[in-house]
Fold these 3 entries.
Entry 1:
Amino acid sequence: MKKILLPLVALALATPAGAQSIIVVTGPQADSEALPVAYAELKAGDNRAAVAKLTGETKLDARDPSRLINLGTAYARLGRTDDAAAAYTAALGSPIRYDLELANGRYVDSRWAARTALANLNEGRPLLALAQ
């Protein structure tokens, strides 16, 4: 499969005031169309719009880790920690799995990203990197 840029903001702190993000940018796709993972909305801090986009009509599988991680990030930034934890947990258990490229150029497994997001949410730890 050829890889395309698949923007996705992953891993946010539980409180909106302290929300910082790692940007994950790549996932393998069969076509060259970028997937609608609410990257622009999350990068702009429009978390309500991100939730609406990710929970509304989309061609993304409901189990897609990029969709779930971004949804968890939006929920975390809105202070909806239980919803964020549920989204990260669903991403961790998803049967869909692929490598994601972080903004710093490092590739990580989608389950690693979900597990790290959940740990950061549960422990209130700072994130690994700031968004670019």
Note: The first strand starts at residue 3 and ends at 10.
Entry 2:
Amino acid sequence: MNVLLRARFCAFSLLLMFGYAQALHAESSPVLEAELQPLKNAFAGDAAQVRAAISKLEWSGISDPEIFDVAAERLEANYKAQLPAEIELNSWLAKGLALSGNPKYQPLFDKILAMQTRKRKLRKHVEIASQRLAVNQSWNPVIAKDNHLAQSQAELDKLRIKNMLNASLPDLVSTGTRLVYNHHKTDVELMDEVHEILAAQYKSSTNPEHLDAMAWMCRTLGESGNGKYKGTLERIAKDNAAHKKVRKYAEKYADYL
């Protein structure tokens, strides 16, 4: 790596670390504390409890080391275990650690991957976890923005999705849109948010991941059953300023309404 590239890489890493540090020191609230409390013991439980914790932590933006250090200590103590049940548990612990976005867990992943004798299943999951750790390092501060302002769990869940939809990271926008599509197509507030973002951004799509997000927005609006979005989709379908992929999806899903 030449000097210029190394300098750019270091600068980028510092920015990610700064964002991560902000997420760790974000203000708390009774709603956040109520959400975190049961998670603090989950990584000390069995595989089913660990899986349940992961399902709650995914897309939450939570990076609290008080939660994840338990998983790290447990994985470090037992990653050489050979029994199938232990390998299964260690694989889930690795997946859980990836959700933290905390780079301090990367050396543990590296140590496991460097083992001369290792079970293929654990190695595969740790490799994936290592990649996801880097992604969540940039995603978590975005998702966690202003989470302390939520007055209820439902409001907190909705705020996180809005943060994802309005992110500058196309892959995070696409993920947020899929969450709306899969779980919130009857939520008028979130659907209107998708509509506003699509209407504002569909002409600027050139990045493949951003195009994917716009296509999913067309699909989400089209399958909402709400006819008020039909006009926007029809307009996009006829607008030559839009990418052909977005026009194609807009035309297809306008017919659903």
Note: Confidence is low (pLDDT under 50) at residues 1-25.
Entry 3:
Amino acid sequence: MKNTPQTPLHFKCGAVMNNRYMLAPMTNTQSHEDGTLSNEEFHWLTMRAKGGFGLTMTCASHVQANGKGFPGQLGIFSEAQIEGHKKLASTIKDHDSLAVVQLHHAGMRSPQELIGEQPVCPSEIKKHNARALSLKEVYALRDDFILAAERAQRCGYDGVEVHGAHGYILTQFLSSEINKRADAYGGTLENRTRLLVEIVDGIRKTCGPKFLLGVRLSPERFGMELQEVKIIAQQLIDHHDIDFLDISLWDVFKQPEGQSTQSKSLLQHVAELNFKHVKWTVAGKINNGKDVHNVLNAGVDFVSIGRSAILHHDFPKQVMSNPDFEPIATPVSEAYLHKEGLSPDFVTYMKRWDGFVKD
């Protein structure tokens, strides 16, 4: 079978993933408030690379200081952050895992108390106390995404993923519900997609054809419509030089929320795209060995693992040795999570997940 968990995956740019497991980019609140890498986040990520993930992706890493979305977020907006990234990229690669940074800006979802100023958005959003970006600021945002990718390349990363999902700033531009701009970056779907594709094209031009380049999209919530997301995804495949699409489905086995699209699962909708030479991954409740095999058997190229990667740093090795592997039952103790490489701050964050950490 083509898509077995152990099969290497060859990307168009030439990068090779030694198996079909990607560490999902997860909020973990472990780094320093200035965006520099902490020893705790270094340990957490490199432990997963050592545990067998063929691609190890950082948490969302903000490309501008005002794009910070959560405390302890790893940044990539400053030269001061380069030393930590060089160390991280090198060590991930030493474990035969592809090292990838997720490029991010939270936009209206940046807490004002965290960034010390009013958050920004394509349009004014009073609910979030967010102000509209000027056209000059849109250009600067585009350029800072591209500069962050160039910075990642200098640090030795194999590639980057552009975070266009989960209601963060690029989703805010894509969403007709949020984006009310009247210029070239708002209105029609083409205009709302413009910033994303300019970032993608700029990264490819700056970083060259051998740099791994992916885009994350989510087909629902925050005003995103499934059919529009499918159009955006196909446009990226057909006209922009990307290597992979990362589709965050919240739950890979769920039905779409829109009544008119419920004849098929979300996964079946995405599988209808003509991916050509572009690889794709999905995330959302891929919890055990059977889930991994079911998703790969549906034609997905590689799986993105979040929850089970927290519970087992070596989840890929566990499933490859036992296709029926089941993770430890939750709730788990704080001591267990510390043993799996989570810092006290990360364990505290995980207490937000109902029933995950023992009281």
Note: The mean pLDDT is 96.
